[in-house]
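Before relying on records like the one below, remember that each one covers exactly one chain. Contacts with other chains, cofactors or solvent are not represented anywhere in the record.
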Amino acid sequence: MTVSLLPGSPLVVVAAALVDAQARVFVQQRPLEKAMGGLWEFPGGKVEPNETPEAALIRELREELAIETESACLAPASFSTGSIGTRPLLLLLYVCRKWKGVVRPTEAPDSRWLRTHQLFALDMPPADAPLVAMLDALL
């Protein structure tokens, strides 16, 4: 499935719950100069026109964290909805337990590996926050 962007269509965003061998989940802080700066989020980003969600997530993980993964390593887990201004937003969350390289955030001022129950205490963007309960139940 590729995403086609029509006027008024939702902005499709993908995110990864990277899970390490200790069952911790990686989160990063949004750069202060960006929208929702300082909030904690799952790594990921916008799906470009004619790009599959999985290809977008692989690209975003390479750009944001300097790691490589494959579509087969991305398990669809959940989604949430919201808005960016007046535009609808659809956030697709994947769980990823296998990647190559060491996670090194390229833009985030801070990052953490946390147990799922610790994620509830973080200040997260409105679309990310509902996904925490699902991850806590899943993991």
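The chain has a mean pLDDT of 94.
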